[in-house]
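User: Before I run my own analysis I want an independent prediction to cross-check against. Here's the chain; please return only the structure tokens and, at the end, one sentence I can use as a sanity check.
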Amino acid sequence: MKTTLSRLAAAMVLGTAALSSITAMADTWPTKPIKFVVPFGPGGANDLVARAVAEAASKQLGQPIIVENKPGAGSVLGADIVAKAAPDGYTFLTPAAGVVTNAMIRPKMPYKEDDLVPVAMMAVSPSVIVVPVDSPIKDLKGFVAASKTGPGLNFSTAGTGSTPHFVAEMLKSKSGAKLQVVPYKSGSEGMVAVIGKQVDATSEASVVVLPQIKGGKLRAIASTWNRRIAALPDLPTAQEQGFANVFIGHWSGVFAPRGTPVEILDKMNRAVDAALKSPELRARLIPQGIDPVGGTRDDFVKFLAGEKTRLGAIAKAADMKED
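Assistant: Structure tokens:
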């Protein structure tokens, strides 16, 4: 009996010491550079947002935030690296919607969903539906009508489960559009296919297509977020054009490994939120078609829950499977 009590007392002492150590670490965090892992290659919308936010948030935290690109397996590789990283507040993931949708289309994942903890919403690059600049299609109603004649229209995507794929399936299921989905390796390749008229249309992040729209190579017919893009104020949303269920954006956020102290999660959330409210960062992102978001951790959790429910139903109905 005494031995058991002694062991219990020792365990309690060790537990208290560990808790004190974690609290002390959170109080002084950060004391060294922090890492943002971007699960995509450099130069894309997610990478651009992560680097801009890292630079601004580092000023809030007093330590540099280093961005590392770890592309592969539709963002699963980078996510797995962070999921298995030490939960000490020095490694974060800055993914896109794939962190939610990959599990919907892949039979096996190398990490569990709750291995990654939501920290902060960063920004949204609303998806823009585009056609060749000399296409006779002028708006989304005209696009759906054109798709219902003859063999339909070819719609390029960045692969199964990508945001353009979800846009195509929303248009098919909610408006009866007749679309043949044509997968490419990236959204940029899908966009080039529209410019070259290998396909009839695509939907891609505003930051990706904006230069081509302003350069006269693409015509934008709708955006798919819940408000107009500041950099394209004359472009109506799909909702404004009568397509209430065509709603999705290329969002990006910050996640941490499970077990990261709550105090650190809150500090990072506040740093990211303050960065996104700064006039300097907003002036940098908004002209590129990127909508800074920010908000609390609870805001981000609620957003993710809504995306899972809504997109999960679409993925199931479309029978989306890993390429």
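Sanity check: The mean pLDDT is 91.
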